[in-house]
Structures are given as structure tokens and as C-alpha cells.
Write a structure and sequence with these properties.
Layout lengths: L9 H5 L10 E4 L6 E5 L5 E9 L2 E9 L5 H16 L4 H17 L4 H12 L6 H19 L9 H12 L3 H20 L22 H4 L13 H8 L5 H12 L3 H5 L6 E2 L4 E4 L10 E4 L2 H9 L20 H17 L18 H13 L4 H7 L7 H6 L5 H15 L13
Antiparallel strand pairs: 1-2, 2-3, 3-4, 5-6, 6-7
GO biological process, one term: DNA integration
GO molecular function, one term: DNA binding
Keywords: DNA integration, DNA recombination, DNA-binding
């Protein structure tokens, strides 16, 4: 069997030195098979992944140290291996992307530029600011990462499918709206003279033949959720993973917050001394300020996070920008796939048997409150920042039960960690 490299710590990696001979020194750092730190004679340090792609052995660069940390290098190495397992040659994909970018700079219109130009004329027509933000955010989160570097006149049905298929089952409503928005951008590009022919994002007589109808896939708003029995095992596996994506997903679980609220969190919003996270109204779905009491586990997670100089985000991407929604989804998907590969059940919704997704963690929290505790349901609704449907109740409820919710979130954190104590009865004044 191949020798397994010792998993080095960040300090051990920092202390590695060139061996003194004329060649570059290469050290295995462990954590991911084939991950190496290469050190040149003059002290330059870069990450390499030695891996077999088809019949070829490759050395794939993953960036320089310390700009790319040990945790980030391991996460990138896992992503590259995930590509290879899916039959993608990362080196050839980089070459193709670079060639596409060069060609795009010389002629035509990129999809990402078409989005900007289309929305510049369309967004002013939206009276609802939330609707404007949704248009921009869904395209930026899902379509631009896949289609952004492509010429609008080269986008095919298969390209649109590459955007929609990963989320068609798990986020059907979002995917359906996204399809319509891609269609609108490509329609604008056609009218503006940047492309000709049929619209590859059209539904009738086109994608309808390749994707199941949205109303047949899942009920509206029904996101696959973790089983309560799987919660401790899932959290234990998540805590073994490194990177901001894994920590953002863990924080989302501990706070029962939406993915977008977590990914956009800034250090200015968080008071570690008071163990409180205050999300401003403009970042909330209901456009109201939301206070989140932080359990000790959530505070410990935040205190252990590195802070990027000049970046206000709590969970930044490698470029210092907010993580994409796909980052959290991909982390959760890989966790499920790893379980299945190890011939374990995986992490499935007990009702529809679909792999659980990040937004489903909120449903798991709500199930825990209802089935495993004596906390009032209305307290859980406040924690989830849901709209109060009863007008009279909404008019009379002035506070947000912050201290009572603090105990509930503490118990939820313990349940996530495997301590299955139910909540205590809380009398509402």
C-alpha cells in the first residue's frame, strides 16, 4: 500500500525549509494524498498536487504560500480530485478557460457582460428592490460561474443544463426562476445583435424535454433536510473538514440562519463578548433587523477563524469576496457522497430520500424544536426570522425573546454535538 504522509499542522508547514541542494525541495503535507509544498532555493513556496489524470501523471499548481493557506490548499486539492473523479482534466479545463477568455477579449460579447447590459436596462423597471436583488444574485451565484466566460453566441442547451441540473432537484423554485432569467438575458443578446437562432434557455419544446416539470419535482419550499437521528454524525463529519466553506456551513447549522445571511456576515455585525449576531434589515428576507444569540460552540467557532487583512467578511472566499451559495452546497454534497462511497447510508431527507441541502438545516432545527423539546413553536419561528402570519399576534409581539432563545440555541448546539437533551419548558410572558 502507498505510504500515507503525516498530516502537518500550519506551524509545521511554516517551519519547513529548503534542504540546500540545487533542486527545488518538495514536502508532502498530508491531509490529501499527493498534496505537496514546493520550496525553491530562494525561498519561494508553492502548492502542488501530484495526481493521475486518466493515463497521465500531473503536477497541478494550487497557488503560492502563504497567500493560499494550508487549509485552502487542502480544500483546492479536494476540489481538483472531485473534478477528476467526474472525468474532468483540471489542466485541460484551465487551458480551455484561458483560451476562451483570450478569444472573448478579442471579439463578441461574454455572457457576464450581457448580464450587466441586460440588467442595466431591465432593473430600473422593477419597483421592488428585493426583486432587483434576486435577479442579480441568482444570475451571479449560479449562471455566471458556469456561463460567464462564454460568448453568448456559443451557449447551447447543454451549457444551460450545466447550470440548472445541479440545483433542479434540490432548489427547484430557484432553478425555475433562474432558467427564466437566463432566457431573458439571451433574448436581450439576440435582439441586441450579439447572437442568432433559438434561445437555448427556452422551456417549451426545448428544456421541457430534458428536465422534469418543476411542479413534479418537489413541493414549493420543501428543501431536503437532515434526519434528527443523523444530526450528530453529520456534524462530526463536518467538523473534520477544513476551509471557510465548511465553517460557514457549521455556523449556519448552529444559528439556524439562511445561507445568504451567513455568507454575507461581517465582523461588525458580531459582538463576541455578548455572544450576539445582529443582522441588519437590508440583509434579511423580511427586511427587519434580526438578532441571533450565539451558543458557546458558535462563539468558539468564530474565535478560531482567521481574519483576512482588509476584509470585513467573516467567511470570505479566497479572493476576499463572499462565498457563493454553491460552496456550501458542494461541501454538503461531498459529505453525502463520501458516506455513500464508504457504503454508509449518507445524509438523506427521511421523507423524500433526497440528499439534504444547507437550507434544509433550518427545517431540521424546526423539527428538533417540535419533536425533541418543550420550547414553544413561536420561539422557533422567531429564531428562523419567519413572518408572523397572525396579524394580531404580530401587532402585540414587540420583543424577540432574545434571552429565552439563547437557552434554546445552546441546547440546539448540544444536540448537534450529540448531546440529546431536550429543551426545558419556557413560560412566555
Amino acid at each position: 500500500m502507498p505510504k500515507i504522509a503525516k498530516e502537518l499542522s500550519p506551524l509545521e508547514v511554516k517551519n519547513l525549509r529548503h534542504t540546500g541542494n540545487g533542486q527545488n525541495a518538495v514536502f508532502a503535507v498530508g491531509g490529501v494524498a499527493g498534496l505537496m509544498l514546493q520550496i525553491t532555493r530562494n525561498g519561494g513556496r508553492t502548492w502542488l498536487l501530484r495526481v493521475k489524470v486518466g493515463a497521465k501523471r500531473r503536477e497541478i499548481g494550487l497557488g503560492g504560500f502563504p497567500d493560499v493557506t494550508l487549509a485552502q490548499a487542502r480544500e483546492r486539492a479536494r476540489e481538483v480530485k472531485d473534478q477528476i473523479r467526474r472525468g474532468i482534466d483540471p489542466v485541460e479545463e484551465r487551458k480551455a478557460a484561458r483560451a476562451s477568455l483570450i478569444a472573448a477579449q478579442r471579439r463578441g460579447l461574454l455572457f457576464q457582460d450581457a448580464v450587466d447590459r441586460c440588467l442595466a436596462s431591465k432593473l430600473d423597471g422593477f419597483k421592488n428592490a428585493k426583486h432587483r436583488d434576486q435577479w442579480r444574485n441568482t444570475l451571479d451565484s449560479y449562471a455566471v460561474p458556469v456561463l460567464g466566460g462564454m460568448m453568448v453566441d456559443q451557449i447551447t442547451v447543454q451549457d444551460v443544463l450545466r447550470v440548472l441540473q445541479p440545483i433542479w432537484q434540490a432548489k427547484t423554485e430557484t432553478a425555475s426562476r433562474l432558467r427564466g432569467r437566463i432566457e431573458a438575458v439571451l433574448s436581450w443578446a439576440t435582439v441586441a445583435g450579439h447572437r442568432t437562432g433559438d434561445n437555448p434557455a427556452r422551456w417549451a419544446g426545448n428544456l421541457k424535454e430534458l428536465l422534469p416539470p418543476p411542479d413534479k419535482v418537489a413541493e414549493k419550499g420543501n428543501q431536503p433536510a437532515l434526519s434528527l437521528d443523523d444530526v450528530p454524525r453529520w456534524m462530526a463529519e463536518l467538523r473534520k473538514r477544513e476551509g471557510f466553506g465548511a465553517r460557514a456551513l457549521e455556523f449556519a447549522a448552529l444559528t439556524a440562519a439562511r445561507s445568504g445571511e451567513v455568507r454575507g456576515a461581517t465582523w461588525e455585525e458580531i459582538d463576541l463578548e455578548r455572544a450576539l449576531w445582529v443582522i441588519p434589515a437590508e440583509r434579511m428576507k423580511m427586511k427587519r433587523e434580526h438578532r441571533v444569540p450565539l451558543a458557546p460552540a458558535a462563539v468558539a467557532l468564530l474565535e478560531a477563524l482567521p481574519r483576512l487583512e482588509g476584509c470585513a467578511l467573516v467567511f470570505p472566499s479566497t479572493k476576499g469576496k463572499p462565498l457563493s451559495d454553491m460552496t456550501l452546497s458542494a461541501t454538503m454534497r461531498r459529505m453525502h457522497e463520501s458516506e455513500v462511497a464508504a457504503q454508509r447510508p449518507g445524509f438523506l431527507d427521511p421523507r423524500n430520500k433526497r440528499p439534504a441541502v444547507p437550507h434544509g438545516l433550518r427545517s431540521t432545527f424546526r423539527d428538533w424544536v417540535a419533536e425533541a423539546t418543550s420550547y414553544p413553536g413561536e420561539m422557533a419561528e422567531v429564531a428562523l426570522a419567519h413572518r408572523i402570519s397572525n396579524a394580531v399576534e404580530a401587532a402585540y409581539r414587540r420583543g424577540d425573546m432574545i434571552e429565552k432563545r439563547r437557552r434554546m440555541m445552546h441546547d440546539w448546539a448540544e444536540a448537534l454535538g450529540g448531546k440529546r437533551k431536550g429543551g426545558k419548558v419556557v413560560r412566555l410572558s
